[in-house]
Amino acid sequence: MWPMGWEALGQWGDDVARIEPLAGGVANDVWSVRVNGHLAVGRLGTRSDADLAWETALLQHLDREGLTAPVPIPTTDGRLFADGLVVMTYLDGGPPETQADWHRVAGTLRKLHRLTQGWPQRPGWRSSTDLLHAETGTKIDLGAMPPESVARCRAAWARLAGRQTCVVHGDPNPGNIRMTASQVGLIDSDEAHVDVPDLDLVLPDNAAGLDDGALDIAGQASAAWEAAVCWDDEYAVRRLAEVRAV
């Protein structure tokens, strides 16, 4: 009945169906699904149970605190994920289009940051400032980069040292934002982890209103992060070119 891996969907009950694939990044198989007559989103991947426990607990916390984000739908026996599959509520809306929209996005990201101060790090992840000393963390392996490139990235991250950290969304691009007239929803928390909040606030037309110095620090650190995460495809090389030489 189900393709490989998706048989886990049966653990959400008898009235379940996969509908159509959704754009959901490269790491996961993401589909719209129907659960007990309601539209939902199913995401099947290879993340560890510890990772999924961190993410689903975060989503529940944000929902309780009034931030619009997908909410995990439990299996019939109350688990928030099963065999790498998470089923979440579907969020309606479209991407931000105007500067006013992006101002609202900035406000929502700042609310996320306020609600998660002191949150524990995602299992296996490192923050940008952790990588001043660590070599690896989930998708990042600084040992795979040329030493000069690592020096440039670390110089950019060093400017963030000593700042308070919180959960950052990690990828607030238009495709991960669902806006309506009344709410701004953040979807796809695949890149969410604990880091310095300004990394989330490098937005079009400086919609977060960072001053010149803060915007420069955040922009350099963000470009270095994306270069390291994606190393060494064309995008990573392009992002690294934005990081000033030491």
From TrEMBL:
The record, for Gene3D superfamilies, names:
3.90.1200.10
Q: Where is the Aminoglycoside phosphotransferase domain?
A: 19-202
Write down the Pfam families for this protein, in alphabetical order: APH
Name the chain's protein: Aminoglycoside phosphotransferase domain-containing protein
